[in-house]
Amino acid sequence: MRIISGLYKGRRINAPKKLPVRPTTDMAKEALFNILNNNYYFEDISVLDLFAGIGSISYEFASRGTKQITCVDQEFGCTKFISDTAKTFEMPLQVIKSDVFKFLEQTSLKSTIIFADPPYAFPLEEFSKIPELVFQNNLLEDDGLLIVEHSKHTDLSNLEHYNHSKSYGGNTFSFFSKPNLETEN
């Protein structure tokens, strides 16, 4: 895996093979960050990376100047790898080892972007818990986005707060946001 842009552009990060992860492809990451780059100043946002895996999305945000990044994963090997990599590159990552759903139920941390990359094999009920908990607990800033990565075979368009999806190869990003109060009236 490589970091595709920013301060650490081109740096390779080699995760141990034994970790149970499926990193986001470079093509999909590049497309996602092109979208985000048109809407946010990376230096001014906060990010919550759920099901962080080896941290590839978090490294991209850090490389682009984001200073407030929290990574959550329940796998000890993943959180240790992210912590070690963050220390090596001097990236501002806070790493939390926790079940993502328990974390979402208990935290009051608000973020501009919440990125979730759960296992593609999750049933729809598990996928639906992510936006449900994020919006129920008001964890997204007003101008923020929840982005859920999933297989192109999974359809999240019927979930509350769904906005739109973008697909790149076998990867799909579904975007969720708070309703715009100005357009509701």
From TrEMBL:
It is an enzyme of class 2 (transferase). Keywords: Methyltransferase, Transferase. Pfam families: Cons_hypoth95. Its EC number is 2.1.1.171. GO terms for molecular function: 16S rRNA (guanine(966)-N(2))-methyltransferase activity; nucleic acid binding. InterPro entries: DNA_methylase_N6_adenine_CS, RNA_MeTrfase_RsmD, SAM-dependent_MTases_sf. It comes from the Bacteria. This is 16S rRNA (Guanine(966)-N(2))-methyltransferase RsmD.
